[in-house]
């Protein structure tokens, strides 16, 4: 049955307010997911470039003095101790410091960098009013 021509302009739009909110929420989730992926990629690429730079700096010194082994510097161990102290306080923000961590501390640090709860990523629009 055809609708009357006068009523047609007064109809509600086909997309409801709920559908608009849903689409907006999905777009925000998609953007937050992309941001988290970008952060993870940046973190991984930084670590790869650091390890690549360390291997490049170690190979020329090893080729020059291949007959005489170099003793390990004590400063490295003390810096690892400093990193562990900072880790216990939660102060490590630099990837270079975190790359010196070993074992469970390194896993914990990287897990904190990569696994953020969604409630920390998605900030409600009306947070200041509905708090």
Sheet of most strands = none
- Note the overall shape: elongated
Distance between the termini: 50 Å
Q: Mind telling me the C-alpha Rg? A: 27 Å
> If helices are DSSP runs of H or I spanning 4 or more residues, what is the number of helices?
6
What structural category arises from helix and sheet content?
mainly alpha
Order of helices and strands: HHHHHH
Give the total of beta strands: 0
Biased composition (Low complexity): 51-69
Region (Disordered): 51-96
InterPro entries: Snurportin-1 (IPR017336)
Q: In brief, what are we looking at here?
A:
With 131 residues, the protein is an all-alpha fold. It has helices at residues 17-64, 74-89, 95-99, 104-114, 118-121, 127-130. The radius of gyration is 27 Å and the shape is elongated.
Describe the structure in your own words.
There is one protein chain. By secondary structure, the protein is mostly helical. It has a domain at about 20-45 and about 95-115. The protein contains 6 helices and no strands. It has helices spanning about 15-65, 75-90, 95-100, 105-115, 120, 125-130. It starts with 16 loop residues before the first helix and ends with a helix. Residues about 60-80 have low confidence and may be disordered. One of its GO terms (biological process) is snRNA import into nucleus. InterPro entries: Snurportin-1.
């Amino acid at each position: 049955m055809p609708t009357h021509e006068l009523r047609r302009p007064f109809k509600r739009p086909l997309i409801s307010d709920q559908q608009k909110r849903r689409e907006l929420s999905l777009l925000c989730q998609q953007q937050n997911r992309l941001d988290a992926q970008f952060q993870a990629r940046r973190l991984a690429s930084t670590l790869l470039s650091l390890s690549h730079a360390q291997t490049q700096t170690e190979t020329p010194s090893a080729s020059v003095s291949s007959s005489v082994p170099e003793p390990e510097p004590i400063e490295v161990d003390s810096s690892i101790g400093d990193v562990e102290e900072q880790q216990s306080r939660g102060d490590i923000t630099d990837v270079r410091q975190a790359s010196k961590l070993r074992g469970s501390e390194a896993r914990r640090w990287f897990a904190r960098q990569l696994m953020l709860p969604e409630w920390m990523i998605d900030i409600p629009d009306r947070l200041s009013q509905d708090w």
